[in-house]
Each structure stands twice: as C-alpha cells, then as structure tokens.
Amino acid sequence: MMKRREAWVGLLFATPWILGFAAFLLYPLAASIAASFTNYSILRSPQWIGAENYRELAQDAVFHKALGNTFLFVVGAVPLATVLAIALALLLNTKVRGLAFYRTMLFLPTLVPMVAQATLFLWVFNGDYGLLNNALRGLGLDPPNWLGDPAWSKLTLIVLAGWGCGQAMVIYLAGLQNVPVSLYEAAELDGAKSWARTRHVTLPLLSPVILFNVIMGIIGSIQVFAVPQVMFPGGAPARSTYMFAMYLYDNAFLYQRMGYASAMAWVMFVIILVLTLVSLRVSDRWVHYETN
Amino acid sequence: MTIRAAALAVVIAAGVAGLAAWGERRVSRQTDTDRINVVYWEKWTGKEGEEMRKVVEAFNASQDRIRVRYLSISGVDQKTLLATAGGNPPDIAGIWQDQVIQFSDNGALLDLTPLAAAAGLTRDHYIAAYYDPLVYQGRLMALPSTPASIALHVRPDLVPPEFATPATFPKTLEELDAMSDRITRKKPNGEIELAGFLPTNPGWWPWAWGPLFGADLMAGGKPTLNSPEMVRAFTWIGSYARRYGSQAVQTFQSGFGNFSSPQDPFMSAKVATEMNGVWKANYIDVYAPDTPWFAVPMPYPADRPDLEGHAIMSQDVLVIPRGAKHPEAAFEFIAYVQRQDVMEGLCLGHGKNSPLARVSEAFYRNHPNKEIRLFDRLARSDRALNIPKTGLSPQISAELSVAFQEVNTQVKTPQQALDAAQKRIDGLWAIYERQVLGR
C-alpha cells in the first residue's frame, strides 16, 4: 500500500516533466513523421502524398550535395577535434605551474556563442585583410581565399571544428584522472618510455571516453548549422559549404516545404542512428572497459 | 499530505501556464480599449523605422477609432508566417515584394481587391512596375510602402574625365567593359587596388542579369534559366573573373566593408562604379558625405538598343495576414499610407522614389537624393524589371545565385552552370505545379 502510494507521489511529481516531454518532444516527433509523408507548408492543411518526399530526396541533387558536404565535414572534423582534444588533455594532465590557468584558457573558447565565433572567424580567415593571411604573407606565402574559394571553404570549416574541442578535452581530462597510477609504474618498470605508456596504457584505458566523444562528435557534426550559416550564407561559394541542416532549414522556412524538411530530418535521424550503431559495433575491437 | 502537495503543485503549474497563455492574448490585443488596436509588424529599425513611426502617429492622431501599434520585428517575414500558421498574426505586416506570391500561394494573405476598390486605390493610382507585381491571379495581395529602383552609381573622380558626367558616361556594356579595363589597377603582386566595375559587387540581384540582356525568366509560362540571353549574360559576368583573375577578384572583394559603413567599397574608392538602389544616397550622406557621385541607367548590350534605360525594381509592401483580427481597420491604415502627401513624406524620409503615379514637384525639389528624377524615370519606364511572378522565385534566386558563384569562381562554364540550374528548377517546377498550383 505504501509502495503504491509512493509510486503515485513520484508520478505526480514527475507529471510536469511527463507533460513537457509529451507536448514538446513526443508530439512533435510523431507530427514530424506524419508531416514527412505530406505536402505541408504549415499554412495549409497537410495533404497526404505517401513516400513522394522520400522519393524526391533520392533524386535531389542539392540534397546529395549537402549530404556529401556534411559527410566530408564529419570525416574531417571529428578526427581533428578528437586528436586535438586528447593531445590537449594529455598536456593538461602533466604537473606544470599554472595548470588551472591553462585549463581555463583552453576551455574558454567553448563558452563563446557560435554566432560570435563565426563572426570572429570571418575576420581571421578574410582573404584580403584576415589575420591568418597577413601572417602567411609575412612568411612569403601566397595564401588562398579561405572563405571565397570553393576549394578551401570546406577545409576552413573543418579547421574551425578544432576550436570547440574544449568540451571534449575536459571529458578526456576527467578520464585521464581515472587511469590507475600503478599501471604507469608497472609499465615503467617494464621499460616503457613515454610514448609506449601513452599508447599501451593511457589510450586503451581512455578508449570508452574516446568512443563517447566520437559518437557525440559525429552527432554534432551531422547537425552542424550555426557557424556555416553565418560564415557562408546559402552554402557559398557555389554550395561548397551547404550542409544538411542548412538545406533542411531552407526547405522548412525559406521555401515553405515543411513536409519535405520533415522527411530530411528523419533521414538525418536514420543516418545518425546507423553511424552510432556502427561506431558501437566497431568499438568492440578497440574499446577496453575496466571490467574486461 | 504528500499527494496533496504534489497535486497542488501540478494544479498551480497548470494554472500559471493557462494564465500566461490567456494573459498574452489580452496584453497583445487590447491595451487600449476605447479604440480598435491594430498590430503592425515591420522590418525597419533606425531612421527608416522612425519615419514609419511618424506616419503611424499621424494616423493615430488623425482619427479616434483606430490605434496602430508599430512594432519593429527582425525576421518579420518568417515570424509573420509562423504567427499566421499559429492563428495569431499581426493585423499588418511589412514584407518584401519578392515574397508576395509565395505567401499568397500558401494562403497567408488577405485578398485586398475589394477593400482597395472601395478606397479608390486602383492600378492608375500607381506606377505600373510597382502595382502589377502585387496582383496575383487577378487578386491584389499587397500595397506598396516604399519602393526602389536600381541604377549604376558612378564616382566621377575615379573614371576618366571624358566619362565623368551622366551625359558622357558609357551607354553600352561593351563601352563599360572597356572603361572598366582602363580604370582597374593592380599592385605589382597582382592584387587589385581599384576596380572599374565588378558584376559581383554588391551581387544582390543574381536573377536580374539575364533580363538585363533581354532574357525572359518565365518564357512560356515556366522558369527558363538557360536561354541564349541568360548564357550571354553569365558569359559577360564570367568575363570579369577571366580578365581580372578569379582569385584576385575574390580576394579583393573579401576586403570590402559593409555597405552601411564608411568601408563600403564605393565610398572608400575601391570601385569606381556600382549597381545599387535609390537608397545608396542615404548611406553616402551618413558615412561619406564628401563622396562625389552620380547615377545613370545600367548600360545595355550594344546590339540590343531596345533595352536602353532598363532597370531593376524592388519594393517594401504592406500586407494583411490571413486571420488578422481587424482587417478593415488595418486596411484603413494601409490606405492612409497610400495618400499622396503621406506617401511622399514617407519616401522623402526613406530617401526613395514614390510608387504613386502622381508626384508633386515639391517631392522632387525637397528630395535628399539629387538623382531622384532618374530613379523615378526608370520606374516609369516600360523596361522596368521585376523578379518573376511565381511562388518559386526564392528557389530561382537561389539557383541563379549558385550559378553566378560557379561562373565567378570558374568552377563551371556559364552553359554548364545554367544547365544545372535549369535541370534543378525543372524538377522543382514540376513539384510546385503539382503540389501548390494543383495542376
């Protein structure tokens, strides 16, 4: 009787959240699935068109282009941010003077709003008067137009992904604190040098954290929107930076094709799901849990 | 007791949410119970916003039945659409002409035809180039707030002396090209220092280049983006990237400041000529008042003298969204804005030409833009050009913008770029016809 009463109390306390979840997540999810099978502009009643939106996606050259751009971004940005975050975490895990200062400094960029970041980088990467190109010219190089040349614009975005690695870095740092010192001592006794200790002790024990960050990185990179939208409006130049989420947004709010945008959102969901499952499956080979 | 506390918390939460929703409606609809409150969302802030606010205040003072509440809203177009979909739109929204057809296709706008007819606001009250784009399928969907026409702005101090007056400035594109080549200067390292003309600056009207070469973007009633005239226009655009160097032009342009700043390339003497709207003079007056300039119609291809005096049009418009609570009162305000004295005051304040057929001499005399007669003449010309009247115009603009960039960065030839744009738009047109027009 008491347990039942407690269950009711718990349920009542959870009711605001359950209502919020149902109204703001569950219902929109269900509605967007339904909308993806309709011709819907939000101002007119949706008309059922079956799988036409999905068929159109299969033939839509701009969708393919945006998908390709996004995959290239994921392939470039996730490894770059991962390597950078691990390297910084390893450096910050050493005992040096002013460690707290360095940690704060390296985490700070993560706190800068995306639009502010994008605006800042418009100045840094400007082809004419940008800081980067001024520095490169100072070295006697002929720098490219990072923002205006289709050959360089995607690379610019990928490089920028490294800027926000502070979040992952902090998680790696926490993971590094959990590596038992005794393992390093044992490895040292066995004659392992610094790199060997990192490779055979640190990285294997950090691998669950790496897996988590890689999966979160993949999800975040597939959904990348704010920075390219501000830095490269419309995916300029020549749609070289047109990302999946930008095309989705344009269809929903610029072209009033909410049904088509909903279909895109569900394709994005499936892609993220598949990549996450693949990452988890592949992880059996390289992720080591302490319980193993 | 615990169950009671939890239940109470839920009831209070639900009550607060209900009050918030009810209160929002009460607050936004009836702050002034003795008059009809008309909510007006407009994009303008700053000086332009102030000028419209003056009109609103004058209207509110002119009668005692209606009070218009002017609200500056960023992203007014999308917010109006969402508010309309949510059943709580403003009574009046200030959007752009380009969006009128798309909004109409979605059933977002009230048909103004009967209200305008009753108020005597017929086609002959307006310059045709500003009225006709607002009529869709025989229905009037919007009325102008302030319009604009586009012309080539010239810095006489940067062009050769023989071209430094409106009368002697090149009339044809071929002459413009030759003059631009004479003016354009490069540094020893190949970087451009001064450009005579660049089609990419400011590059705001990618749809317009073809029509400036005589192309009909809706030939045969469907979007036509790769006609010979279009290919010719884009070949001409690409010729600048070829002559001055694609990379050099891109790098040069990336150093241009914002148009509403002293670093604007025209004001900072980086370009000698620039295609821009009647509003350009406002920015020159604010940021670089000593800049010498004049304006001429955009030159035409030498073998198409029939295109002489052509010009691009654009305008801000007032609409009544579907579901507006007070459409008659809203239209009363819109009709007030269409009065000659009110419209001239607003256009003077905005530094633009008037959309009305009848304009007073005082308007020209007191106008801050010294070239106002030219901009007015261009609008009255039968060669005034407007964006295609189709709900697909945002996509047409996007595809032509991509083709424009592909040609300028030499990723594709003009023919390849326009063929790709045509293929894409053909697919979208088929869907648009089926899903929106119901054909």
Uncertain regions of chain A: pLDDT < 50 for 5+ in a row?
A: none
Instruction: Tell me the number of strands of chain B.
Output: 12
Q: Give the low-confidence spans of chain B.
A: none
Largest sheet of chain A: 2 strands, antiparallel
Q: What is the structural class of chain A?
A: mainly alpha
Helix content of chain B: 40-55%
Determine the number of helices of chain A (DSSP H or I, runs of at least 4 residues).
13
Specify Rg of chain B, calculated over alpha carbons: 25 Å
Based on CA atoms alone, the radius of gyration of chain A comes out at: 24 Å
Number of helices, counting only DSSP H or I runs of 4 residues or more of chain B: 17
Structural class of chain B: alpha/beta
Shape of chain A: globular
What level of helicity do the residues of chain A show?
Answer: over 70%
Strand order of the largest sheet of chain A: 1-2
Give the overall pLDDT of chain A as a whole number: 93
Strand content of chain A: under 5%
The largest inter-chain interface, given as chain pair and residues per side, is:
A-B, 40 and 42 residues
Tell me the fraction of residues in β-strands of chain B, as a range.
5-15%
